[in-house]
Design goal:
The complex is a heterodimer. Chain A is an alpha+beta fold. Chain A has helices at residues 18-27, 81-85, 111-115, 137-140, 147-151, 162-178, 218-261; strands at residues 4-9, 53-61, 64-72, 91-93, 99-101, 122-124, 129-131, 157-161, 185-187, 197-201. Chain A is built from 7 helices and 10 strands. In chain A, a hairpin with a 2-residue loop joins strand 2 (53-61) and strand 3 (64-72). By secondary structure, chain B is an alpha+beta fold. Chain B is 34% helix and 28% strand. The chains are: A alpha+beta, B alpha+beta. Chains A and B meet through helix 1, helix 4, helix 5 and helix 7 of A and helix 1, strand 3 and helix 2 of B.
């Protein structure tokens, strides 16, 4: 299903935020007015206007401060909690293996944002639906790279064939481990059955602000198991009631017409 | 309202079919609507990013005279398709997006000449012709008043034909060719104090 994925090589990321502004530029997202939060990270949270951003994290490593930065956003998980949580099927996997929100079907219940382990789904209060990274579905299905990946000046965001990207990630991890980064690892290969955003991390995921064990919450699984079949029943019930209501109205109209024909003044 | 058993079964089957069809069909229809590129039917223009002296190549996608998208030029030898955070947002020089996501011309963009008179506290809008004439007249006056034809170096006269009373600034918001012409013009006038924000 998924043929092309994106590699985020955090050892090459300089935190220039070109991906962040390229995302806003391509998706025509407005800027947010923020206040200083004491960190380089800006805006502080993902929202309906900020689909991707560079997350800066500081870590005190035996007296010397280490600075971790990584481009984060929707991971486009294979076992996606948001897809299971969505009651209307608005969030779905596309034929490119990415996760996209269908704005026509979205009812704005925000369950997806609550279920997501990465906290990347923003909620648009004015339009009343959830918004998140689309992996630039329009671009990748037309043979272009995603906006963030095409903008990255240091080559930290690589986009390409899945096998090739995984091979590159493995060789990069091997290089980092051989050069004094014993904790270097690939993130997103086995987590949630594979993500379309693959990370090469120099250290533990939680130091980058990524969940060390992303998973679908058990409540979401239960909800999906119960609600999935119920959904069909609801659709049937709604359709039947619309039909019944239509018939009833027609009957009333016919009755009214008959009364008028008879010259009756009663209503 | 009377529903016969046959009618009920018919309706039930039709509804189930419609529901299953909609479940199958809708996601694909939605994907197809997202499939269209925002930059289709646009004309591409190549230019240079104006923010710094690196000179990254960018492609402007123009539709009906409005720049709808700007991204890095993959064929350009300097940036090979990449752009920095400033360059990625360069289309906002012409158009910005409001809170509802609608494009509007950038209100902070200068489209007229602003002039502040000596010892005035506010700017006023003036015509281009007037401004260019005024600049030319003042450059000429200053240069004629301060022109040094020759200076004495190690006991002999050396022709310099220069003025040290004018400073000349180039701009990274112009292309390299334009800055080359500015430089030539400054040299022709006799200005030796030249600089540029990108130190070209």
């Amino acid at each position: 299903m998924r043929s092309q994925i994106c590699l985020v090589d955090t050892s090459k990321c300089t935190g220039c935020r070109a991906c962040q502004s390229a995302c806003k530029q391509w998706n025509q997202l407005p800027a947010e007015s923020t206040t200083f939060t004491g960190a380089y990270e800006n805006p502080p949270y993902f929202s309906c206007m900020t689909w991707t951003k560079v997350v800066f994290r500081e870590h005190d490593d035996h007296g010397s401060t280490r600075w971790y930065m990584s481009k984060q956003g929707c991971m486009h998980c294979t076992d996606a909690a948001c897809v299971l949580a969505c009651p209307t099927g608005a969030i779905h996997h596309t034929n490119q293996g990415t996760v996209t929100i269908d704005e026509i079907k979205c009812i704005g219940c925000n369950y997806c944002a609550a279920a997501c382990s990465f906290r990347v789904i923003g909620f648009d209060r004015s339009a009343n639906f959830a918004k998140k990274c689309t992996f630039c579905y329009d671009r990748i299905s037309n043979g272009l790279k995603p906006a963030c990946s095409s903008a990255c000046p240091t080559g930290a965001l690589l986009f390409g064939d899945e096998r090739e990207i995984i091979r590159q990630a493995q060789s990069r991890v091997g290089y980092l481990q051989a050069n004094g980064r014993q904790d270097a690892r690939i993130y997103g290969l086995d987590e949630v059955q594979g993500t379309a955003m693959l990370y090469v991390l120099e250290d533990f995921p939680d130091r980058y602000g990524l969940p060390s064990d992303p998973h679908v919450p058990i409540q979401t699984r239960i909800w999906n198991a119960i609600y999935g079949p119920l959904r069909i029943a609801v659709v049937l019930a709604v359709t039947f009631s619309i039909w019944a209501n239509y018939n009833k109205n027609r009957e009333l109209d016919e009755g009214k017409a008959a009364n008028q024909d008879g010259g009756g003044a009663e209503r | 309202m009377r529903i016969s058993r046959r009618k009920f079964l018919k309706i039930g089957a039709a509804t189930a079919a419609a529901a299953s069809l909609s479940g199958l069909g809708w996601p694909h229809a939605a994907d197809a609507s997202q499939n269209r590129l925002r930059i289709r039917y646009t004309k591409e223009y190549h230019t240079i990013c104006t923010f710094c002296g690196v000179g990254c190549g960018v492609i402007c996608h123009v539709r009906n005279g409005v720049i709808v998208n700007i991204e890095g030029d993959p064929d350009h030898p300097i940036n090979e398709g990449t752009l920095c955070s400033k360059g990625s947002s360069i289309s906002n020089i012409s158009y910005v997006f409001d809170e509802a996501g609608r494009p509007k011309p950038n209100p902070n963009r200068l489209t007229k000449v602003l002039y502040r008179e000596p010892s005035s506290d506010r700017y006023q809008e003036v015509e281009w012709d007037w401004a260019l004439d005024a600049i030319a007249r003042r450059i000429k006056a200053t240069r004629d008043a301060t022109l040094e034809a020759s200076v004495e170096v190690d006991g002999r006269e050396v022709t310099v034909n220069r003025t040290q009373a004018i400073g000349w600034l180039g701009s990274a918001f112009c292309t390299g060719e334009e800055n080359y012409l500015f430089h030539k013009m400054a040299r022709a006038i006799g200005i030796t104090r030249m600089d540029h924000c990108a130190r070209l």
